[in-house]
């Protein structure tokens, strides 16, 4: 089992969700996060006061999949979230040791 | 240079109250005037005027609650939003009580001194539902209770304006004590000086239709002194101190604009053409100021911002306040635009250069816009600029009187405010601890949070 974690631009969230649904993936977790990479931040001006906003809003998507599906999921996310502009985000893949579905007590692949 | 007597009267709201149209004879107080009054025709109360003035009073209250409170609330960080709303709410309540106990008397109590109104009407003694206050038309009166309510709402908003200067770093107890002292020693005397027929600036011939000196210059100067004496916010110049909700700020600024029609057109005290002139000027000056601020910002910074447009709304309204009864609608557009340009320069350049933390630009917009308005009134009242001044109107001499009025207000307010901040500092202290300030005043002063995300 793999956990695919992607950080993408907020307005790409819906496209990523659709792409993952097409693969038959049922369910994912989304968190609103802030951060910066090469895109750095931007400047906001309020009357005379200028503020450098270093951390930009992004969404973090986490989806647990069977190992054989991980590569397809990564491809789907990368295709859906790409704009070609700086700040498109990153994708990380982790190994999952155990998984449990709380309602039924099913474990591992059955729990996904 | 003087205006014809009738013109002078139109220019100074409040003065009217002291011309004493008291139907139920007030002993002693009314006596000096009574000989004159006896010769006049019987006073008439017009229900249309009364209805308009009751409405106008509510509009001015609407400026403070929720207008100013939301405007300020949006401009602070989320952790301090409630502290500003609470300060505005509490100031409104405290000043209403003081106004009835001694404020109205100190401003309009019938005393004929140049600097205050005396003790004649403390606890509103002698005022009944039959008491009448005169308007600017001879023989036309409104109930004195309506006049008291209308003027009360002005006394409420002025100290509420000041809190923007030291927002996010002031003790709640300090705000309340300062308000009590400040309205007593600064606001009521200046209201008397400008609006009462025995007042110092009134008799000088200063033009201030709706309170540019009394409300805006006064609040602006107290704000500047306050932000310097309280000191900068922790993290000023290092941390991001950006406004938390421009949406609330836009809503608040819009409510202020609507309420301002009560403030300006209501200052005419009658529902007549004079009120209509103040009304159209309150539209056009504000529109001119919004456009000017946005254009200047777009040229200077590359983008026109919502906060810029909201600032333009306030700059225009402040500038037209003293002028709305005597300038023309086109002159008002120019006056509003000039006010935006000067205020923009103060908030974007001067404030940074001197490094004072006037958090919500109370001095930069109300103080400076008020001064621009006071001086502009001396210019745009000229008949050849569309104003209502008589044929003998001289810009030079009127401008000189306006300058004197501004300087007197700045000195009186600046010196006394500094003393009052010192007193409050000695009694309660002005600032919360740095820990409390960092955690936010909502939790540390009021025990609640503006927003819960669940």
TrEMBL record, chain A:
SMART domains: P-II
Gene Ontology MF annotations: ATP binding; enzyme regulator activity
Function comment: In nitrogen-limiting conditions, when the ratio of Gln to 2-ketoglutarate decreases, P-II is uridylylated to P-II-UMP. P-II-UMP allows the deadenylation of glutamine synthetase (GS), thus activating the enzyme. Conversely, in nitrogen excess P-II is deuridylated and promotes the adenylation of GS. P-II indirectly controls the transcription of the GS gene (glnA). P-II prevents NR-II-catalyzed conversion of NR-I to NR-I-phosphate, the transcriptional activator of glnA. When P-II is uridylylated to P-II-UMP, these events are reversed.
A Pfam family assignment: P-II
List of residues that carry O-UMP-tyrosine: 51
Native organism: Chelativorans petroleitrophicus
Keyword tags: Nitrogen fixation, Nucleotide-binding, Phosphoprotein, Transcription, Transcription regulation
Taxonomic lineage: Bacteria, Pseudomonadati, Pseudomonadota, Alphaproteobacteria, Hyphomicrobiales
Protein name (database record): Nitrogen regulatory protein P-II
PROSITE patterns: PII_GLNB_CTER, PII_GLNB_DOM, PII_GLNB_UMP
Gene Ontology cellular component list: cytosol
Family of the protein in this entry: Belongs to the P(II) protein family.
Assembly, per entry: Homotrimer.
Domain of life from the UniProt record: Bacteria
A biological-process GO annotation: regulation of nitrogen utilization
This protein's record includes keyword Transferase: no
SUPFAM superfamilies documented for this protein: GlnB-like
From TrEMBL, chain B:
Presence of the UniProt keyword Transport in the record: yes
Domain Ammonium transporter AmtB-like stretches: 51-451
Example of a GO cellular component annotation carried by this entry: plasma membrane
InterPro entries, per the entry: Ammonium/urea_transptr (IPR029020), Ammonium_transpt (IPR001905), Ammonium_transpt_CS (IPR018047), NH4_transpt_AmtB-like_dom (IPR024041)
GO molecular-function terms, A-Z: ammonium channel activity
Keyword line: Ammonia transport, Cell membrane, Membrane, Signal, Transmembrane, Transmembrane helix, Transport
Family label: Belongs to the ammonia transporter channel (TC 1.A.11.2) family.
Name under which the protein is recorded: Ammonium transporter
